[in-house]
Amino acid sequence: MNSNRFLAILLVLGMGLAAVLTTSVPAETCLSPFVKRIERPERYLYVFCVDADAKDNDFLAVIDVDAASPKYGEILYQLDLGSKGNETHHFGFTDDRTHIWGCSLFSNRIFVIDVASDPARPKLVKAFDSAKDSGLTGPHSPYAIPGRMLISFLGGKDGGVPAGLAEFHNDGRLIRTLEMPKDAPYGYDVAIHPDLNRMITSSFTPPKNYRKPLAKMDLKQFGDKLLVWDFRSRKVLQTLTTAAAPLECRWSLKKDAKHGYCNCALADSIWIWEGDDGDKYTTRKLCDTGKLPVDLSQSPDGKYLFVSCFASDEVQQWDVSDLKNPKLISTVKPGVEPNMLHLTGDGKRMYTTNSLLSTMDRSDDFWVRLIRVGPEGMKMDPKFKVDLTKFKTGPARGHDMLLY
Amino acid sequence: MNRSLQRTVRWTPLGLSICALFGFMGAAWSDEARLAFIRTPTDFTLTSQDDNAFRLSSLRGKVVLVSFVFTTCNGSCPATTHRMDLAARALAKAGLSEKVHLLSISLDPARDTPAVLRDYMRLYDIETKRWTFVTGTQKEIDKVLADWGMWTRPAANGQLDHPSRVYLLDPRGRVREIYDLQYFRPTWVSEDARLLLNETEKR
Predict the structure, then answer these.
(1) CATH number, domain at A247?
(2) Is A23's CB within 8 Å of B23's CB?
(3) At the N or C end, where does chain B have fewer CB atoms within 10 A?
(4) What residues make up the domain containing B77?
(5) What is the pLDDT of residue B148?
């Protein structure tokens, strides 16, 4: 080894160590592993809001979550999205954390929002009909991959199945579309494990069904499959069966883990997918949860899972250190129908909202609350209560959240 | 959720599990290529480490691996350059050195003069025949960054904040894959480069 190369390697090991460590530590655990991490406590919480009676425009609310700020816990700004009745739903950062992509389940619109230029006052850069180019409907999970956004769609061209995935360049141009296989045609979430080169997708129900009122939904039109993909080639390797409606997909963050978790909403349970030494995956039920588990989060060390149970009004914390013997160690009741959970990168604060879909909500009391996570388990923060019912336009259904 | 619905949904897994009896049909592709066409960057002319004009389109006919770094970076750039070096070795091992070129574009042209780039390349023992570093005026670099969806901004530690993407271009100058530090294995670069070269030979 010559001296220059030796010096260069030292440079990488020394100066570059911080960067390598930084890139190996994920951002918030529910985000794509490709999203840039924020190396400081959060200052702003963005909430994707549906105007509750669909008579006014949907919007993004900016909430002050800087603990040192005199306006802590207040709504600082509302970004008007310029249209109504979108059923704005899930959020996702681009890989460089400069823009949020927000998906709309009813209108198929995707909103591209610049949060880097002025994080306190985000700007709407673009709103486009994602169905027009992709031929898919019901855009659900915007998931960052390097330089691009991968979107899982819940439906095909006419709002039925097969659902699919579509990749867009960060500027909004379509790159390609993938349809789900005919025998597992439903779509919902997506999760990538870069080191394993594996991607998991899950199953819900298509727009034709979820647009109906809850009582009229056809429960036979819900999927019960997970697909294991070769991420680099975007090819399905395996079709796995779970219980009904496997929703959020989370790869375990434990070191060298080859497993992950999903919440089966219509079967009140968390399921696990596990890869063996031969890279074959199997599924099994991990534990029974409260009623209608609708979101799933994970502690940064992979030791705990947090699941919101929409129909039993609770959030549960499960210790999954021992996958053969998961333990329910903590439960909180944030209020009626808790839904989305967003855990901070340090695993200590978890924000929660309480709207699922305008067709499924059973309360008009919408809020954002904060769960503190510590050695004793979870505790509600009594000081943090953001009321989403007092806007000039009336109540708003807050769903997904992101931090900056 | 009302009780009757809850009772109903408990039976849903059984009904849906019938679907499992049917074999996997495979995902349908609207794009046959494994490495999809992502975009075509605009051609540019910058200044190489040898102080010569360097045009991106001069690399047409070769696969090109493009990184964006700056020489005084103590963040992700040393790791990016190290990964690029490992990729160069994997390409050499695969016999692809003649057909693949590496290109590193400076994010900090004010400090990264051609002479500074030459020193940086010497430090990393980089073979200039296969790997070019380029710089330019701030205006020229800004134009390239904007076209590639890249950016820089001052970081709190006095450094530059920036994305750490690495782009793979096919012999026609089109972006066909984007890697980052989490998603970058030298063997993957080598495999992807071979795929793009084979694709060109078939045309």
Answers:
(1) 2.130.10.10
(2) no
(3) C
(4) 40-202
(5) 98
Q: Which two tokens stand for residue B177?
A: 């894959």
- B13·A183 Cβ contact <8 A: no
Does residue A1 surpass a pLDDT of 70?
A: no
The tokens for B145 are 């960054």
3 state DSSP class of B65:
strand
| Shortest CA distance from B16: residue in chain A | A224
Of B199, B182, B167, nearest to B39 by C-alpha is B167
CA A192 – CA A196 distance, rounded (Å): 9
Residue with tokens 């999203």: A35
Question: For the packed helices A17-24 and B77-93, what is the interaxial angle rounded to 10 degrees?
Answer: 80
Tell me how far apart the alpha carbons of residues B6 and B1 are, in angstroms, rounded to a whole number: 7
Cβ atoms < 10 Å from Cβ of A54: 15
Q: What is the residue type of A398?
A: G
Range of the domain at A171: 3-403
Poorest-pLDDT segment among A1-15, A286-300, B102-116: A1-15
Q: How many CA atoms lie within 13 A of A374 on its CB side?
A: 6
Residues of chain B neighbouring A225 (CB-CB closer than 8 A): 19-20
Do the bridges between strand B175-179 and strand B166-169 make them parallel or antiparallel, or are there none, so unpaired?
A: antiparallel
pLDDT tens-digit readout, A315-368 = 999 999 999 999 999 999 999 999 999 999 999 999 999 999 999 999 999 999
pLDDT tens-digit series, residues B64-121: 999 999 999 999 999 999 999 999 999 999 999 999 999 999 999 999 999 999 999 9
From the list A34, A98, A167, the residue facing B36 with the nearest CB is A167
pTM equals: 0.91
Sign of CA dihedral A180, A182, A186, A192: negative
Mutation pick from B180, B189, B191, B195 vs chain A, by most beta carbons of A within 10 Å, is B180
Q: How far B196 CA lies from chain A's nearest CA (Å)?
A: 14
Residue A301 DSSP class: T
Residue B22 pLDDT: 33
Residue B9 lies in a domain: no
Query: Which value does ipTM take for this structure?
Result: 0.93
User: Between B114-123 and A3-14, two packed helices, what is the crossing angle to 10 degrees?
Assistant: 100
Nearest residue on chain A to B179, alpha-carbon basis: A146
